[in-house]
Amino acid sequence: MSSKETLEQFGSRWEGLEDPRCGNDALHDFHELLMIALCCVLCGGQGAVDMAVFAEAKGRISAR
């Protein structure tokens, strides 16, 4: 199984999860944010700032 297939299978576990954000809070894809948050925590991240730095470093979001 390729890494892309593994990530897709892992992400499919969250398909039924509703996005609790509303309005302008939903700037980025909810499932992508969950994956970024999980990866950040597994790499030692401890908060929202660490998550943003991780996502920027991986090219998933751009700095504001």
Distance between the termini: 36 Å
Number of strands: 0
What is the percentage of strand-forming residues?
under 5%
Radius of gyration: 13 Å
**Assembly level:** single chain
Shape: globular
> Could you estimate the helical fraction of the residues in percent?
40-55%
Unreliable spans? none
Query: Mean of residue pLDDT?
Result: 80
Count of helical regions: 3
Summing up helix and strand content along with how strands pair, one would put the structural category as: mainly alpha
Largest sheet: none
Summarize the helix and strand pattern as letters: HHH
What does it look like?
- This protein has helices spanning 3-12, 30-42, 48-57.
- With 64 residues, the chain is mainly alpha-helical.
- The chain has a domain at 28-64.
- It is globular and about 35 Å long.
- The chain starts with a helix and ends in a 7-residue tail after the last helix.
- The relative contact order is 0.11.
Features:
mainly alpha; single chain; 64 residues; globular
